Fold:
Amino acid sequence: MSGTDTTKEPVQALGGGPAIILVEPQLAENMGTAARAMYNCGLTDMRLVKPKQDWLSEKAIAASSGASEVLKSAGFYESTEDALADRQFVAATTARPRDMIKTVWTPHHAGGELAKRAAEDTKIGILFGREKSGLKNHDIGLADVIIEAPLNPAYSSLNLAQAVLVVSYEWYQASQASEAEVTPYGVTRPANKDELNLFFQHLEYELDTCGFLHVEEKRPSMVLNIRAMLQRAALTEQEIRTLHGVVTELRYGRRDEIHARSDWKKKG
Structure:
């Protein structure tokens, strides 16, 4: 369908809108059509994780059909973690069953939930995977929820631009119509993914040190499940700092004093 009207002002996405993060996209044309899908829905924050081709090539620009500004302002990132470091809530799109416990939303439900968070000034990211293989477990492990479109179970695969359009459309509809509930955060705010990942590294280091993650073949799934459990809590920046303190105290706190008291009681 055609419908470009350059005489009209483009819609400004609520709260700046979600960042659309394409993980290792393979074809320039797909990046162009994804940019077009984004701009259809008022989204402009495209982030590219190690794209295989030039997103500013003639093929990409042509495929964007007038949404070249989205491509020109797109950010390049070396890792998924870098691309979502400033995000406070992340959804991963996938149609495959995964060996981890995460809440699954339909695109329609996601639109409303993400619009609520945007109204609270939460910085949102939506992950889209490689054209051939989608997102890896590691990528999905960084997300708070999964978005899965309820399509023909025998043929549920979407191409990259289709997936971006389905999710972006539901976001657009919800953000334009929503009078969202707001959660007051007071002096704190939702933790971003960089803060959350630093805490995960801290916690996992101590769990390795104390031997909790000693079974090598089980370690990857245990780490993913611990991360998924904590991400479901929607932690704030203040809560992350508190948890850092808890882990530090458990490791370096008053154990010597406690052990000394225990030894004294035994001698008495």
Q: What stands out?
A: The mean pLDDT is 87. The chain has two domains: 14-177, 193-267.
